[in-house]
Design brief:
CATH class of the largest domain: Mainly Beta
Number of domains: 2
Order of helices and strands: EEEEHEEEHEEEEEEEEEEEEEEE
Number of strands: 22
Structural class: mainly beta
Largest sheet: 7 strands, mixed
């Protein structure tokens, strides 16, 4: 299970959370969505393997090569990478990229796992990326890649204090060096403020930095749809049929294509509802993550895990205008249950009064197709036909 630095406030996973059979359609959905009438170009990147959304990190295949080099040049690299809706950057081992280009880069970068204090240090370098799709269209662009060269466990690491290093007083064990690093992650989400050094921001989002090839120059709407067939880039009225949409707020005033996480409402048993400031379906985990205020009496067993039979209702989208809903029941055997993890306990007291956050994990994608419109700022959910 992973937690990235851009999930710094999304903390421990619920232990043994499973879901009931309730999955309601919204009573009062948002009626409007993105204006897509002028757009007619899209292409689907197929999943690398048959996808049932039981396990985290569905993967896609692509080719990388140095900017300016022809696609068939020596050094082009075919790569498979996990698609993560909870992050926003392409992160790869430095050993899989051009060493000379890496050494010449002066832009250092980092990634820090807040759940286990794993620090990854590397450099940013641009690469040309090409996706083959299920149609004749190729998707291509120049994207920033964080090439990781060193990793270690660094307790309490802070960039402002420690820079791109881990002092001996904080480091647990030795550094893991270049040839032993094996991270392959393509973050395609939103809701992370720009950070020049860290893995944040729409400008580092691979899916927002590719376009159709020159033979297919039609109007192309930046955004994506994720379903059982793959990742479709380019939104149209046709491919977004039956989606319900919720508006997103800008991450910060001058944000171009980045938006805050989806709002929502969380309710545990008969406790008061919590306003969720981040209601995330994260393809990067198959457990469930919940944060709640200190006075929110989530029932726990002696081990500190949520007790069997507890109901957790999640409504996606603004209050009274939600676009999807799932009720989870601890101990249920529903097929879209988040995976059990009895070693990690929920942490209460992170949020302020009446505020919470939830990350349902990937298995909610058994119930809903997902969409993100990066240009106007909408999040969409479409109930899967069964």
């Amino acid at each position: 299970m992973k937690h990235w630095v851009f999930k710094a406030s999304a903390v421990a996973a619920l232990a043994g959370v499973t879901s009931s059979t309730k999955c309601a359609n919204p009573a009062t959905p948002i009626a409007t969505g993105p204006k897509l009438g002028a757009y007619n170009t899209s292409a689907t990147i197929p999943w690398a393997t048959l996808q049932t959304f039981d396990s985290a990190n569905p993967s896609v295949d692509f080719t990388l090569y140095n900017p300016g080099a022809p696609a068939d040049a020596q050094g082009a690299r075919f790569t498979r990478c996990a698609v993560d809706t909870g992050s926003t950057s392409l992160v790869l081992p430095a050993r899989r990229l051009d060493r000379e280009l890496y050494e010449s880069s002066t832009e250092q970068g980092y990634m820090f796992y807040t759940s286990n204090d794993r620090l990854s240090i590397g450099k940013w370098m641009n690469q040309t990326i090409v996706f083959n799709t299920t149609s004749a269209i190729q998707l291509k662009g120049t994207v920033p890649v964080l090439a990781i060269a060193r990793q270690c466990i660094c307790h309490g690491w802070k960039l402002q204090e420690d820079g791109y290093d881990c002092p001996d007083s904080k480091r647990q064990g030795p550094w893991i060096e270049r040839n032993r690093i094996g991270i392959y992650m393509m973050g395609v989400g939103f809701g992370s403020k720009s950070d020049p050094a860290g893995v944040f921001g729409w400008d580092k989002n691979t899916f927002l930095n590719v376009l159709p090839d020159d033979a297919h120059p039609g109007p192309f709407r930046k955004g994506w749809i994720l379903d059982e067939t793959g990742a479709t880039l380019g939104l149209t009225e046709l491919n977004t049929d039956r989606f319900l949409w919720a508006p997103l707020r800008r991450s910060y005033p001058d944000a171009t294509l980045d938006w805050q996480r989806l709002e929502g409402v969380i309710k545990v048993n008969d406790l008061p509802e919590l306003n969720s400031t981040s209601t995330l379906i994260d393809s990067g985990i198959n457990t469930m993550i919940l944060t709640a205020p200190a006075d929110y009496a989530v029932p726990l067993n002696e081990e500190g895990n949520i007790t069997l039979g507890t109901h957790i209702n999640v409504k996606f989208g603004p209050r009274h205008a939600h676009i999807g809903e799932i009720t989870y029941t601890i101990g249920s055997q529903a097929p879209y249950q988040p995976a059990k993890d009895t070693t990690i306990k929920p942490r209460i007291g992170v949020e302020g009064p009446g505020i919470g956050r939830v990350n349902t994990g990937i298995r909610a994608m058994k119930l809903y197709h997902l969409a993100f419109d990066a240009e106007e700022g909408f999040y969409g959910m479409r109930r899967r036909e069964t």
